[in-house]
Amino acid sequence: MKIEVFLSRERFKALKGKDINALLRENLPRVEETLKAEREELLRGKIAKLEEKLREMEGEIEELRKFYEKALRDREFMIAEREKLKKENAELGAKVGEEKWAGESS
Predict the structure, then answer these.
(1) For position 24, what pLDDT does the model report?
(2) What is the pLDDT of residues 29-78, one digit of tens each?
(3) HEC profile of the chain
(4) Region of 16 on the Ramachandran plot (φ > 0 left; ψ -120 to 50 alpha; else beta)
(5) Residues 15/7, Cβ–Cβ less than 8 Å
(6) Long-range contact list for 31-40, CB < 8 A, 24+ apart?
(7) Burial (CB count <10 Å: 0-12, 13-18, 19+), residue 83
(8) ∠ CA(33), CA(39), CA(43), 5° rounding?
């Protein structure tokens, strides 16, 4: 693996003659902590966005649940009305049939 580091001229002169590997080993824990903190912050942001999306979806699900429950109630009402109308129609048909039969026999 190849890593390139770009330094200003002043920083390069300050590091000249020092053990670069030792400096890297000394600073590695701080760099790892910084990267870990940045990653955690990024993940916290993603979690917040996902939680917001989840709340939106829960709201949509609740709206759908209410709509479905209303549709079921409407369906039950319509079935009851249909049965009521069938019964009324049958009664009217029987009554009309009786009136026809009574009119024909007179």
Answers:
(1) 84
(2) 999 999 999 999 999 999 999 999 999 999 999 999 999 999 999 999 99
(3) CCCCCCCCHHHHHHHCCCCHHHHHHHHHHHHHHHHHHHHHHHHHHHHHHHHHHHHHHHHHHHHHHHHHHHHHHHHHHHHHHHHHHHHHHHHHHHHHHHHHHHHHHC
(4) beta
(5) yes
(6) none
(7) exposed
(8) 145
- How many CB atoms are located within 10 Å of the residue 69 CB? 10
Cα 90 from Cα 80, distance rounded (Å) = 15
Per residue in 3-28, pLDDT tens? Answer: 787 888 898 888 888 888 898 889 89
pTM of the model: 0.53
d(Cα 37, Cα 59) in Å, to the nearest integer?
33
Integer Cα distance of 43 and 65 in angstroms? 32
List Cβ neighbours of 15 (8 Å cut-off, separation of 6 or more): 7, 23
Q: Are 23 and 15 in contact (CB under 8 A)?
A: yes
Structure tokens at 18: 């020092």
